[in-house]
Structures are given as C-alpha cells and as structure tokens.
Input
Amino acid sequence: MFKVCTGKIHFQGDKQSAVGVKYRFYVESPAGWRGEFTPQKHRRFIDGEGYIIELEDGRRGTCYIRKMVNRVMPTVPPVYSYYFRGVGRLTKPGK
Output
C-alpha cells in the first residue's frame, strides 16, 4: 500500500497561489517519478500543463498532470483525482 502524504501544487509563474493536496507516489527514481493527488480545495487544473509539486518533506519538482476520476462526494463543485508525472530529481528550494 502506498502512503498518503500532504503537499502542495504550485501554478507555474504564480508565486502567490498554491493548492494543498493529498498525494501518493507510485514510482520515484532518478529517471522519473509519478503518482496521484487529490486537491483539498477545488481548483481547475489543465491536463498536460506543467505545475510544481511540493512534497511533505519540502522537495519540489515540475510535473505534468492528467485528470483521472471524479471522486463521488456530496460537494459542489466535484472533487477530482489527478495523475502526475515528472522527470529528473526532486530538489529542495535553494539547492
């Protein structure tokens, strides 16, 4: 089973805005990494666009996302899960 962690998704070029997410890693290697996340607040993400994911331990990396499924919840607007993938190393800011 994959551990659920808390992090953030930052929008490219928007230093002020970030969305809290709950994420799971499926693969993490020097060649690339991938997993899935569910935002904690509704925010529109565009499939195939680049975002910056910030992990629970402070590491960051650029990732590309794709909408997966609508989680059935009695909320408006609906909450979606997203698949993310990135290449290269995840790094801490300032390194």
The chain has one domain: 5-87. The radius of gyration is 13 Å.
